[in-house]
Design a protein that fits this description.
mainly beta; Lipocalin; 2 domains; 6-stranded antiparallel β-sheet; 21 strands; globular
Length: 328
Amino acid sequence: MRSGRNLLRAGLLVGAFAAIGCGEEPVTPSREVLEDATFLTLDGGEVTLTAGTGVSEDNVRHELLLTADGDLDFDSDVDAVAVLAADHGRERFLTLHAVLRDGDQLRDVSARLIGDRIDVLRAEILDGVIRMSVRVRRPGDPVTVRPSVDRTPYFALTDRGLASITLIDVVDGEDGDDGEDAQAATPALYTHEWELESFDSGDWSANLRAPREPVTLRFQADLRDAGDVTGQLAGFAGCNRMFGSFRVHEAEALRFYGVAAMRGQCRERQADFEQRLLEALRSVRAFQVDGDRMTLALRGGAIRFRAGRRLASHTAGATPDTPDASSM
């Protein structure tokens, strides 16, 4: 998406690639390249490493822990992620960095805090999604106790930078249009994938023929309460996968938070539709489910969906856990 280009920061060059032999294979950024690199810091500055370590202007020591290669923005170039540790004395913060190929160079385009004094065992890029293996302490453990609880958080580079995401799957081979099935009953908000039917919301209206695939939403509740439910949102925004959080309260009040789409390459009309949809979702204030139809209400219009495929049930290992930096 074009808005994602604003994330690039001039001058943060991570290093040059080796020449590509005959132009046949994409260049893979090696750890050696990233060991002599300039990265973003969480306070908006930068730090340059030499042989994997460096000291920022505020006298904080940074160390490169691990790297992984893969395509983060779906442009067929080989990008990278890097995990750095910032030693603040009694605190040791770990940050995740998205490093995109820009011609024959790499640029750090987003940095995100992932924890304090946790162990990061592995990082990999799978279909644009960053999957990490980390080890954290149990709730209540003092900082002197070694992390012992395994977690598998997922992240993605979105139009708003690196974001923590939750993957929500549907049941393979099950179609909501098959005769007398779950569609005959009133599906709960959290049991089905919702497919866009109409997008009529004043200035947000867009051409429904623009998306390359059906636009969908999936809700997964984290905390259930009679009057207040929070959870994760996932789906497809017309060209890219999208992610965010939501809150349902006071029966039909609904708000979306942190809604963002991955930074895949889109045609102009697809990108325009996707941006309009994301902005509309950020403006939603209420919803209503009537049978197999859901309406999201916002000022000046509404977005309507129909219930589609049933969501897969999530066991303890099916939904990745995202470490909370405040508790590590």
